[in-house]
Specification:
The chain has about 110 residues and is α+β, with helices and mostly antiparallel strands. The protein folds into 2 domains: about 40 residues, no CATH class; about 50 residues. It contains 3 helices and 6 strands. β5 and β6 form a beta hairpin. The chain binds zinc ion (ZN) (2 copies). The site of one zinc ion has 7 residues, from α3.
Amino acid sequence: MDEVDDLPTVSCSRCGREWDLAFELDELRAGNQAVEQFALDHERHTGHFPDDVTPWVVDCRRCPDREGYLAERPARRWAATHARHTGHAVELTAPEDAGPTEIIEDPG
Ligand SMILES: [Zn+2]
Ligand SMILES: [Zn+2]
């Protein structure tokens, strides 16, 4: 048995699996961002976030582009730059109970 007492773990009920974050800590040197890094990678590869992760979601109303972020700033930045370059309105949804959906549009 390896010593894994200190490794953080993440579980995903949709995958029915649980992971320790040795890979994120060792290979990606994610440090205390390991959970965030895992969650973002999980979403990128599976299309959903693991348990206990509620992302900021930006969802373009005109094209299929949709991204999840674990912080408000990059989510807002994605929405603002998408609107700026495409002229599309983007829905920005905060993690649960943090407020209503906001529409980000190109200020022109
Ligand atoms: Zn999963
Ligand atoms: Zn768009």
